[in-house]
Amino acid sequence: MPKIQPKYKFAVIAADIVIFTVKDGKLQVLLIKMKKKPFLDMWAAPGGLVRPLESVDNAARRILKEKTGVTDVFLEQLYTFGRVDRDPFGRVVSVAYYALIPNAGLKLKTSAEYGGVEWHPVDKLPELAYDHQEIIGCAVKRLRVKLEYTNVVYSLLPEEFTLGDMQKTYEIILDRELDKRNFRKKILALKILKATEKKTIGEANRPAALYRFLSHRPENIEIL
Amino acid sequence: MPKIQPKYKFAVIAADIVIFTVKDGKLQVLLIKMKKKPFLDMWAAPGGLVRPLESVDNAARRILKEKTGVTDVFLEQLYTFGRVDRDPFGRVVSVAYYALIPNAGLKLKTSAEYGGVEWHPVDKLPELAYDHQEIIGCAVKRLRVKLEYTNVVYSLLPEEFTLGDMQKTYEIILDRELDKRNFRKKILALKILKATEKKTIGEANRPAALYRFLSHRPENIEIL
DNA sequence: CCAAAAGTGTTCAGACTACACCCATGT
DNA sequence: ACATGGGTGTAGTCTGAACACTTTTGG
Question: I need a labelling partner for A139 at 20 to 30 A (CA). Which of A46, A155, B101, B199 fits?
Fold first, then answer.
C-alpha cells in the first residue's frame, strides 16, 4: 500500500466523468493524457476537485462542459470510489459520473495542462491512471443494463436517425446481434419515437425513414 | 439558501447508512435522535465522517457495526448526496449506503451522544434532519427493485425460515400481495434454497417446512 | 370443531424467438 | 447489373397470471 501524503487534512471530493460516444462502429470513451509524475503519459477520464460552493452534480456538469462543450446530454452519477490509496496525491474520494454524447462532429480542444484529449474504444484501452480502469469498467456495465430498460440511447443518437442507426447503436454497445424485425416491432410498439416525413438521401441503398425521440428525458421502459 | 460555514477548507466526506429490517409486519429503518441545535429532537440515519486513513466502504461498515453490532449483512453503496447546503455544519458530501439486517432480537444501544436509537416504519417517518428524507426515500426505492432481481432477502430473514416468511417479507416491502402458488413455484424453481429436515413447531396451524439459502452472497437472479 | 396457515396444478393470454424475401437507391 | 441496407409477417414456444380446495396443527 503506497503511503498517503496528507495534502489535505480530511478526505476531499473529486468528480470524474466517463464520457461515452459511439464512433467508427465502436463504443468509445474520452480520455486525457496525464503530464504529472506518477502517471506520466498514462490516460485518465476527465475529472477535478469539487469546489467548496458547488454541488457535486454541478461539478460533473462543469467538467463535462469544459472538455466537450456539450450541456444537454444524459449525465448520471455512477458510483463513488473511496479507496484510501486510489490517489497518490492525497486522500481524494471520487464521485464518478457517466455521460452519453452523440457523435456529432465534436471538436476536442486540448489544453496546456494535459498531453492530449482523445477518444479510445472501450475494448482497447491504454494504460489508465488512478483506479480509472475500474471506473470505466463499471460505467460500461452500467451503460449496458441501462440501455435495456431505459430510453437513454436518445443521448447517443443525433436528433434524427433511422431505425437501422438505432439498432446498430444497441448492437455495438451490447456486443451482440439483434433481429431486425423483432427490434423494429418492439421499438415502434413502445411509442417512444415519432416518424418524421423525411428519409435519408444520397446513400447507396434504399432511403430509410427518419425518426426522432418524443422525449429527451430519461425514462424507464423495458426496451429489450 | 442557508449560508455555509467553511468549517473545512474543502468539502469533506461522510457516510450515512440506511439500516433496514422487517419488524412487526413493517419495513423499518434505524434512526437516531439528534441533540445538536439546528436539528434538535429531529431524527437522522446513523452516519459519520470518513476518517483520513479509512476507505469509504470501511467507514460504512464501521458505522453499521457501532450502531447495531452486526457485521455480515448485505451492505451496498446507494448514492452520493452532494448538495452544497445539505449540512449546516459545513461542506459535507454524504456517501449513503443501505444495509439489510434480520430482525433477530437485536439490542439497540444508545449513547450519551444521541437522544435515542429506534426503529421507525418507513411509511410513518418522523421529521428528519439534513436531507435524510430524500436519502431514505431513495433507499426504499432501491431496495424494492433490488428485491425483484437479486437474492438479497437472505439478509432480512433468519438462517432458517418458511416460504411463508419469505413471501410475507416480499409483500411487506413491495407493498402488494403475491399469489402463494406462483411465488412458491418460482422460488423453488430458482434453486436458491435448500430444504432442511425441520419443520416449525408449536404454532397454531399446520407445521411448515424450514428452508435456508444456499448462498449468502448477493447474486443477480430474476425473482419476480 | 374451529381458526389459521401450509401445501398443491391447470389453464389461458401475451410476449419472445426464429426465420426469408422483395424493395429502392447509388455506383 | 449489382451491392447495400430498408422494410415486412407468421408460427411455435415460453413465461406470467389467475384461480380453489384439502391438510395439519393448536386452542
Answer: B101
